[in-house]
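Comment thread on ticket #2218

A.B. wrote:
> Attaching the input chain for the structure job we discussed in standup.
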Amino acid sequence: MSAIDVSKLPVMPVRANLGGTVLAVNGETGASRLRYVPGEHLKNSVGTIFGGYLAAIVDDAAGITAWFGGGKHRFATSQLTVNFLRPVNPEDALLVETSITSLNERQAVVDVKLKREGDHKLMVTGTVVQVFLRKNAPAQSAQEETK
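C.D. wrote:
> Ran it. Output below, let me know if you need it in another format.
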């Protein structure tokens, strides 16, 4: 296994805002382990953690896996599927494990599992399709693409 020195990874503002920390990354496969800590401010009206926050974790965690496992090519999320299995409480730190289940020159499909840190119960699963962007393609606005 080619482990990445996670202490040298740049701090990603999105991940920091989500309360996330990278614990380990396999530099060849992209398989990753991360930890996220939700807070009281993320509670929904019934007192559990807002699903949108959990979906953002799935997307964020899949990103680091697609980056390293996909050869460090730029990408964009084209599909995000999230399965909420158990309610997450504000005090539940989450350990996240990711792996690539399918990879080709156009896209990576990433499997994501969120487990409660205390008892390792599976709380949320997700699948993210990351489409690789063309190399050296000029950026286009949405208006230009529709012409």
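A.B. wrote:
> Thanks. Noting for the ticket: The helical segments are 13-17, 51-69, 142-145.
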